[in-house]
Amino acid sequence: MTATTVLGACPHDCPDTCALVTTVEGGVATKVQGNANHPMTGGVLCAKVSKYAERTYHPERVRTPLKRIGPKGSGQFTPVSWDEALSDIAQRLHAIAQRQPEAILPYSYAGTMGLVQGESMDRRFFHQLGASLLDRTICASAGSEALLHTYGGKLGMHVQFFAESKLILIWGSNSIGSNLHFWRIAQEAKRHGAKLVCIDPRKSETADKCHEHLQLLPGTDAALALALMHELIVHDWLDHDYIAQHTQGWDALKARALQWPPERAAQVCGLPMAQITQLARDYGTTRPAAIRLNYGMQRTRGGGNAVRAIACLPALVGAWRHRAGGLLLSTSSNAPVQRARLHMPQLLGQRRPRTINMSTIGNALLDTQAPRIEALVVYNSNPVAVAPESAQVAAGFAREDLFTVVLEHFLTDTADYADYVLPATTQLEHWDIHTSYGHTDVLLNQPAIAPVGQAKSNTQIFRELAAHMARYDAAFTAPHFHDRDEDLCRQAVEGSSIDFAQLLQHGFAQQSLPDAPFAQGGFATPSGKCEFYSPALEKMGINPLPDYLSNYEMQSERYPLAMISPPARNFLNSTFVNVKTLRHIEGRPELEIHPADAVARDIADGDLVRVFNARGAHVCHAAVNGRARQGVVVGLGIWWRKDGANGTNVNELTHQQLTDIGRAPAFYDCAVQVERQP
Ligand SMILES: Nc1nc2c(c(=O)[nH]1)N[C@H]1C(S)=C(S)[C@@H](COP(=O)(O)OP(=O)(O)OC[C@H]3O[C@@H](n4cnc5c(=O)[nH]c(N)nc54)[C@H](O)[C@@H]3O)O[C@H]1N2
Ligand SMILES: Nc1nc2c(c(=O)[nH]1)N[C@H]1C(S)=C(S)[C@@H](COP(=O)(O)OP(=O)(O)OC[C@H]3O[C@@H](n4cnc5c(=O)[nH]c(N)nc54)[C@H](O)[C@@H]3O)O[C@H]1N2
Ligand code: SF4
Ligand SMILES: [Mo]
Fold first, then answer.
1. Same-domain check for residues 595 and 655
2. Could you tell me which residue ranges the 4Fe-4S Mo/W bis-MGD-type domain spans (predicted)?
3. Is 628 a pocket residue for ligand 1 (Cβ < 6 Å)?
4. Atom 4 in ligand 1: which residue has the minimum CA distance?
5. Per-chain residues with Cβ under 5 A from ion ligand 4
6. Could you tell which of 180, 435, 579 is best to mutate to test the pocket of ligand 3, judged by most ligand atoms within 8 Å of the CB?
7. Centroid of ligand 4 to alpha carbon of 165 (angstroms)
8. Which of 40, 46, 52, 173 to mutate to test the pocket of ligand 3 (most atoms within 8 A of CB)?
9. Which of 469, 485, 509 is a domain's end point?
10. What is the pLDDT of residues 454-490, one digit of tens each?
11. Which of 620, 639, 635, 619 is nearest to 579 (CA)?
12. Residue 524 falls inside a structural domain
């Protein structure tokens, strides 16, 4: 049998956005590999996506539309035809929309990062209906808005130039697990003599391989950044010229930083003072110095301020002058796409529906104030597992008067609560176009195989739903509800520097951008400067100057341990949890705990433990493996609730309070107690 290869893009919420090559034999995808021609991918994929074919042909794939026959949450369904499912859904949505369109809520995130399957026909459909809007804050909005109010957008260093850096701070990022291709570049820098410093409450795989590890307490990064500034000031390791020309608010920031001598920060961060002064010396005297920040450090109350404080550092030492100096959190503002062309917000007409924050979906579903959410359409997300305070989320999804439709590959925790589950295609089965938040290339994904079972792409499902809605409302017959996926891919980059023919041929296209974005200033802020002091934040009633904000949940006698729950290396959020080979590597839901904290509770490695606070309890196995610091416990990965020993996961313990900037969840700002499960 002859084998063909098809070019694609990894759909996952990962800064690397790899280029894929899928081998197809007799209509079956037999291998998914990295595209060797794409510089960032370099022919290498992470372990997860190497198993993409296993996930695609998984025996538990949802292959037909399903209708609920048991109680909500029971996961009991019967197969129905597409026509039956879509006519009924259209009729139900229409009945609600006639009365109160805002009672309908779409709920989606980055199960696929594709612009077409993630934010095109779906947005048009819900805008035409006049449904409530969703504030998509669950991951990155604290850091994104912090960057917006400091640099003017999600802008920063180009990842490839870290190879030339002499000092790299890997700050709140387990790069080996979640940013593998950056780690490859950092390794190259290390071989050329760069010093690597990891700043993370957990002794991660990445911390193991760095020269230094500052194992600070969760949520204390701003205090550390302010103390670094203090040292830069008192030792005069400053680039006065860069500060004078390209920053705003230096006097105010300086006054604040001088209140943060290293001994104060050492107390707050739970670090030896010498580690802070040494880091300041390294940062103040090494050129070029680069910071790889990741979103893991902004999931606490003060996450936005922490990102702003750290984002000020490169300007103080003039690191931006060199292409291998500066900071990278996200560069997605460089993406050459016209989202409005895909979303078509004009379909709202004069209507201005309310916006619901996805991070507080638990509260929103239980809110009895009008207009109550009566229908929920979930796709590209698994909120029952990933949203904070699961007990509230699950109670919301269990409401008998809520009509829920879930577009999915698998019967996830969320799908279990659906009235209808609709089988969706995977990346091997549909078209899509991708930009990245960790590099600046654009990638095209072409379908490699026919849909598995009766699966349809998200776009196809919304096109067909629109056709069913047209029975009640002629607006749904408009031509933009007929655009094909390949056309939507073209629309995304129309009028930009990206050549679609090149995407079709090579699978990716690179943009030409300046090497060092802020070498001559030119920040995208209203002032054109790096805004230490942000008038825009001030207008919003938010502290205009970066500051340290202590966590919502400080350790107390009752709940003396701080819990963080960062990603597992072999899962992607709650995706891949059901893929056997990957699950086998991750083992079982665990709580990492420091030996002293374990001994004090008579807990041994491998014991079943109960982690609890006022919101709930989660039962899992203790791992006394040297990765947790004293006072901090780590529940790694977002397992499915139904796999938990007591039917819960870590989000049973997290709360719905939001970050200082960006209205995001504070997943890693969570106090708990732990006991051996009797
Ligand atoms: N393998 C894998 N890769 C992933 C994901 C996954 O689930 N698995 N998730 C993807 C997603 S959605 C995202 S948003 C990205 C980025 O996701 P991030 O959340 O940035 O993920 P990591 O880089 O793994 O982890 C962040 C690190 O921050 C640490 N940390 C926790 N609290 C603090 C703190 O207060 N301060 C500091 N300095 N560090 C802290 C954690 O211990 C962890 O090692 O990764 C993506 N990549
Ligand atoms: N405690 C704790 N909670 C967290 C985090 C944490 O670190 N700790 N991380 C948070 C972060 S950073 C994020 S980004 C969120 C992630 O939360 P989600 O966006 O919900 O991500 P996933 O859990 O990966 O679930 C994505 C779902 O989309 C489905 N999917 C994928 N592709 C398609 C498609 O083409 N069509 C359809 N219909 N479905 C598709 C997958 O099968 C999967 O079930 O979780 C957050 N929750
Ligand atoms: S998850 Fe990240 S590292 Fe893995 S293949 Fe996708 S983009 Fe690459
Ligand atoms: Mo995320």
1. yes
2. 3-60
3. no
4. 178
5. 139
6. 180
7. 27
8. 46
9. 509
10. 999 999 999 999 999 999 999 999 999 999 999 999 9
11. 639
12. no
pLDDT of residue 369: 83
Co-location of 312 and 389 in the same domain? no
Mutate to test the pocket of ligand 2, among 12, 136, 174, 381 (most ligand atoms within 8 A of CB): 381
Per the domain annotation, does 244 fall within a domain?
A: yes
- Which CATH number do you get for residue 90? 3.40.50.740
Domain check: are 12 and 127 in the same one?
no
Range of the domain at 385: 66-139+340-509
CATH code assigned at 32 = 3.30.200.210
How many angstroms does the Cα of residue 299 sit away from the middle of ligand 4?
10
- Clarify whether residues 347 and 364 are in a common domain: yes
- As for how many domains the chain has, the answer is 4
E strand or H helix that includes residue 314: helix 303-316
CA 296 to chain CA centroid, Å, is: 9
pLDDT digits (tens, 9 = 90+) for 527-547: 999 999 999 999 999 999 999
* Distance between start and end Cα atoms, the chain: 58
Atom of ligand 2 nearest to the CA of 414: 44
Taking the C-alpha atoms of residue 285 and residue 241, their distance in angstroms, rounded to an integer, is 16
Amino acid in the structure at residue 504: L
How far does the centroid of ligand 3 lie from the alpha carbon of residue 568, in Å? 14
Whole-model pTM above 0.90? yes
- Alpha carbon separation from 237 to 166, 275, 282, 513 (Å, rounded): 16, 17, 10, 30
417 alpha carbon, distance to own chain's centre? 24
**Ligand 1 pocket, residue 173 CB under 6 Å:** yes
The CA 46 to ligand 1 mean position distance, Å, reads 16
Report the CATH number that the domain containing residue 661 is assigned in CATH: 2.40.40.20
Best CA proximity match to 202, nearest among 218, 190, 191, 226 = 218
For residue range 503-528, list pLDDT tens digits in order.
999 999 999 999 999 999 999 999 99
Q: How many CB atoms lie within 10 A of CB 479?
A: 6
Tens-place pLDDT, residues 146-201: 999 999 999 999 999 999 999 999 999 999 999 999 999 999 999 999 999 999 99
